[in-house]
Amino acid sequence: VQLVESGGGLVQAGDYLRLSCAASGRTIGTYAVGWFRQAPGKEREFVAAVSRNGGNTDYADSVKGRFTIFRDNAKDTVYLYLRSLKPEDTAVYYCAAKSVGASFRMSIVRTRVDEYDYWGQGTKVTVSS
After folding, report:
1. C-alpha closest to that of 46 among 123, 115, 128
2. Hey, what's the torsion of the CAs at 75, 115, 18, 58, to 10 degrees?
3. Which of 40, 44, 89, 107 is most buried per CB count within 10 Å?
């Protein structure tokens, strides 16, 4: 599967963005998906994730209540809604996917970088104060 992120940009603190992760090559419906971000000079960190069946989500503490992950399998796209943005949210945001078979694993949310097999090229989000 190929993943392409879009929707990043330069915004002011308190603004809103919607990031998209579009899949091609295979339907995203058979993958668990996560969003990660990497700020300059820092390691890539977990932001949000959704299970393959869409029934479970998880968020980093720093974004809980402000970010929402949503998958639309019909459009082969997973979205990340970013609200009340802060300067510390500035980073390149990446989506990632892991193939999951039809089993109990469909409900598992994966939050570690090393759990994912496929990555997009990233979209940059810059939040000015």
Report:
1. 115
2. 100
3. 89
